[in-house]
Design goal:
The chain has 85 residues and is α+β, with helices and mostly antiparallel strands. 38% of the residues lie in helices and 27% in strands. The protein has three helices and three strands. Strands 1-2-3 form a three-stranded mixed sheet. A hairpin with a 6-residue loop joins strand 1 and strand 2. Helix 1 packs antiparallel against helix 3. The protein starts with a helix and ends with a strand.
Amino acid sequence: MDYIKLIHTIIDSFINNPEAVLIRELPQENEKDKTILICTENDDTARLIGKKGCVANAIREIVTIAGKLENKKVHIKFESFEQDK
């Protein structure tokens, strides 16, 4: 499954700058685990996390369900970076 494409499909519609999104799969020792890092601008990271983390939890839930179809455990991490204006 292409988790990066799935995450882009979920998040691109509700962030301000989808061109500045960086999504990478981090290397893992275990084949059954995947860690995906989502880097966006500060404002967009706040949007992706949401109040009390509800948006982040929803994104994690969708990706977790997709991972279960392949017997994989998928972890999502959010980070922000400062975009030069």
